[in-house]
Structure formats: C-alpha cells, structure tokens
C-alpha cells in the first residue's frame, strides 16, 4: 500500500496540481490586494467615497454600529458589500485566467504550425488498424 501511495504521490500530475494550487492561493492574495488596495479606492474616489467592503444590512434590531466589524460583534448582518468585493475578485481572476489560456492556445497553435503538426490527426497504432480490418472482414462475412 505504501509503494502504491508513493507512486501516486510522486506522479507528475499530482505534483503539478499541488504546485498549481499553491500558486493559485498566492495569486488569490495578489488579486485581493489589487481589488482591496488599488481598485476599490479608485472606485471610491470616482464615486465620492463609495466603499463596498463596509456595506451591510442589519438582520437584527440590536445592530446599531456604523462599521461592518462592529456590526458583526453586535449581531447578525448581511455583509453584501463583502460579497460585491469577492465578486469583483472573481471576475478579475477569471479574466486573467482567460487571457492566460488564450495566450497558451495561441502559442500552441504557433508551435504546431512551425512543426507541421497542426490539424494532423494522430497516427493509429498498428494493432488498432489490424483489429479494424478484422472487424470489417467479419462484417462482410469473409474469412482471413
């Protein structure tokens, strides 16, 4: 069992996935900072002080605080401003990943065009060709 686990854990795909997750977590922190520290203050300056992160709706009559952090300590709140900020984070991450995949696809097409492998179907292995011929012969009722 140990050898099987070791073989699984050291397989290239698992290591690549782990690296991707770690880089994704770091990338998420960068985007959070981009949105919270750069994008949202600009939106706030353009809209006259609008700051989504502190917007909330009190779900309890006990909540009288003006800031979200204090309101959470007083009772139940619907922090819809935090949701808007998270949605903006998601849109930015999705856009950047879209551009990254688009660029990778463009590079792949360029490399395929250089090597002449673009739109070329993969070669069928000899055993598959033989089995296809046998199947076709069997359909027609002829023997080998």
What does this protein structure show overall?
The chain crosses the membrane at residues 12-31, 77-101. Keywords: Cell inner membrane, Cell membrane, Ion channel, Ion transport, Membrane, Transmembrane, Transmembrane helix, Transport. With 144 residues, this protein is mainly α. 70% of the residues lie in helices and 3% in strands. It has 5 helices and 2 strands. It has helices at 2-9, 12-46, 68-74, 80-115, 126-140, and strands at 57-58, 77-78. A two-stranded antiparallel sheet has the order 1-2. The two termini are 46 Å apart. 3% of the residues are buried. The model has no long low-confidence stretch (mean pLDDT 82).
Short description:
This protein has helices at residues 2-9, 12-46, 68-74, 80-115, 126-140; strands spanning 57-58, 77-78.
Distance between the termini: 46 Å
Low-confidence stretches: none
The shape, in one word, is elongated
Tally of helical runs = 5
Average pLDDT confidence is 82
User: What is the element string, with H for helices and E for strands?
Assistant: HHEHEHH
User: Using only CA atoms, what is the Rg?
Assistant: 28 Å
Structural class: mainly alpha
Helix coverage percent = over 70%
Biggest sheet overview: 2 strands, antiparallel
Order of strands across the biggest sheet?
Answer: 1-2
Explain the layout of strands and helices.
Blueprint: H1 2-9, H2 12-46, E1 57-58, H3 68-74, E2 77-78, H4 80-115, H5 126-140
Antiparallel strand pairs: 1-2
Helix pairs in contact: 2-4
Protein name: Large-conductance mechanosensitive channel
Function: Channel that opens in response to stretch forces in the membrane lipid bilayer. May participate in the regulation of osmotic pressure changes within the cell.
Membrane topology: Multi-pass membrane protein
């Amino acid at each position: 069992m140990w050898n099987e686990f070791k073989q699984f854990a050291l397989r290239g795909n698992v290591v690549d996935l782990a690296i991707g997750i770690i880089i994704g977590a770091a990338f998420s922190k960068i985007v959070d900072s981009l949105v919270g520290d750069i994008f949202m203050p600009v939106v706030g300056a353009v809209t006259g002080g609008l700051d989504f992160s502190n917007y909330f709706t009190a779900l309890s009559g006990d909540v009288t605080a003006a800031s979200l952090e204090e309101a959470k300590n007083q009772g139940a709140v619907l922090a819809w401003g935090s949701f808007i900020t998270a949605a903006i984070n998601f849109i930015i991450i999705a856009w950047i990943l879209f551009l990254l995949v688009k660029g990778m696809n463009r590079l792949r097409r360029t490399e395929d065009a250089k090597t002449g492998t673009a739109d070329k179907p993969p070669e069928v292995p000899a055993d598959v060709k033989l089995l296809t011929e046998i199947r076709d012969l069997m359909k027609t009722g002829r023997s080998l």
